[in-house]
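Researcher: Next sequence.
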Amino acid sequence: MDIGLSSAVFYPKTTEEAVDTAIDLDFKKLEIFINSESEFSDIYIDMLLKRLSENNVEVVSVHPYTSVIEAMLFFSGYKRRLLESIEQYERYFRAASLLGAKYFVFHGARNLTADVLSDEEHFKAYEMLCDAAIRNGVLLCQENVSWCRSRDPEYLKALKSVLKDKVGFVLDMKQACRAGVGIDEYAAAMGENMKIIHISDSDNDNTCLLPGYGSQDYKLFLDLFRNSELIIEVYSTNYDSVQQLKYSKFLLMHQLF
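Model: Next structure:
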């Protein structure tokens, strides 16, 4: 098993610079965070794919820059915007598929006290988006995010119950820490639909650290790790040198295998 890296760890470097740096660090699996609309264009995707192919790098997943507005795009109750946004995301799904990604990471609905949609309407909109992803050869994967509805394991259970194998999940360890919800709780809710784990570390003072730089005992989650794609995802403020990312991978491999 290999451990991958999210290009988001280098933000605000351009996406191509981030990919090049990950390649230089000898990562062979990547989650690519697309940071602008033009980066979903065929010309840009072709350029990235050439760099990736030349270095035998696999793209596991794609994450869109529009994740912060997905609640407005898909769950506002404004049908015209919903339909146009699904068309927009179909372009994103196609780009992800061209890169060879199996999964597309989704933040989704915000954690609001009241939802403008009924549960039936909410899940119907969600299913339309999942179907669009499947048509384009990728699986939409809901990530647990502390400021979104997905912070609640019961919401994830409901998604899994309604959408079954049309939806996948991403377990993000730093977001679990920020939500105050146990990793085991999220894993139980996601079940066999969990496809990716965003690995980070934490301690009493920090919710996000490089793996191996905090107090997390990863051996507690060996079964989860063996059945999911493992992607290191932290922020650029969580390290001083990019070489620490390579060392973090070494520490993880040593702990897990």
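Model: The chain has ten helices and eight strands. Residues 75 and 115 are 8 Å apart (CA to CA).
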